[in-house]
Amino acid sequence: MPNQPDAPRIVGVGGVFIDDIVLPSGQTYMGQLGGGVVHALMGAALWGERPGICATVGQGLPPAAYGHLSTHLDTQGLHTLDLPQIRAWQLFEEDGTRRELYRVRETVPFIRGAQPEHLPDIYRDCQGYYLLQGFEGVRAWRKILRGFILWEPLQQIMTPENRPIMQDVLRECDIDLVSPNLVEAQAVYGNLPPEELIAMMLADGAQAVALRMGGKGSIVANREEQHYIPAVPVSRIVDQTGAGNTYCGGLLWGITSGKNWFEAGAAGAIAASFCLEGVGVLNPTQIDLAERNQRYQKLLNNG
Q: Exposure winner among 22, 46, 174, 195, fewest CB in 10 A?
């Protein structure tokens, strides 16, 4: 069934957060719009897309945050809970590690994110979906979605004892692409080199893997091909929050636009580079499109 005329091509599923960011220098950025799904969809919006968002929000979402969402995204899928808006400290250390400390009592409905009953009918037949979900969530979503699915597993489920559950999900749910980061993959499979981690995920049933390695770039692979995409150098890293999610959104935009694996991964890397240069969620209207295109072409030429 083709998209309805006003339906977005891409939809992201998750929860909307408000982040209070604390850098190692002591610099703080309070009240920043956040949430992995928001970061991801802004990574797609950087490329001229207007994705749809299906996400849980709480009471007291700041007007500026809602304005950012509605400017760049189709917000028909926002589901407002009868709970205070989730807010979290994002505490960064000198080595780049991050701790997340929640500032509200009720967190599970936001971490779990939107579920199939929250999906507007207009979002049911889109080309691509970004799912920031746990095991049961991704099972439920796969049952009702027909488009390409990029699954970013929740960090909380990436543990050694959950490997059998992950195997079952990958083998039974027909997930098109799974994208953990390096730390998450090593938490499940052991402290192994990236190529071995990817081989193990493919053996466990993944159709394709996009392994995000921060400053070391990323690898996008399936059983037939494997591509290394270097990280895009930036003059100054301002804030690392959400860069990996932003990569996923750019990657999904590339895949659903007919790009090959390397080209799609390059689109993700470019989106992540702009995220690193600003605070919080990427603002596509503040990005110089000529600079975006120049970075993309340079990465393609060097690939």
A: 174
- The confidence score (pLDDT) of residue 2 equals 45
pTM value is: 0.95
28 φ, ψ to 5°? -120, 145
d(C-alpha 110, C-alpha 13), whole Å: 11
Strands 28-34 and 17-22: antiparallel
Domains defined along the chain, listed by start: 10-302 (3.40.1190.20)
Can you tell me the distance from the alpha carbon of 181 to that of 251, in angstroms, rounded to the nearest whole number? 14
Helix (H), strand (E) at residue 194: helix 194-203
Give yes or no for a contact between 62 and 56, defined as CB atoms under 8 angstroms apart. Answer: no
Question: Is the CB of residue 276 less than 8 Å from the CB of residue 243?
Answer: yes
pLDDT of residue 292: 97
The set of residues, in sequence order, having a beta carbon less than 8 Å from that of 24 and lying 6+ positions away, is: 92, 93, 94
DSSP structure class, residue 92: E
Which structure tokens are listed for 100? 């997340």
Q: Which two tokens stand for residue 46?
A: 């950087």
| The residue type at 282 | L
Q: Return the H-helix or E-strand segment holding 77.
A: strand 74-84
Q: Can you give the pLDDT at residue 98?
A: 81
Distance between CA atoms of residues 27 and 211, nearest Å: 30
Q: Which residues of the chain have pLDDT under 50?
A: 1-2
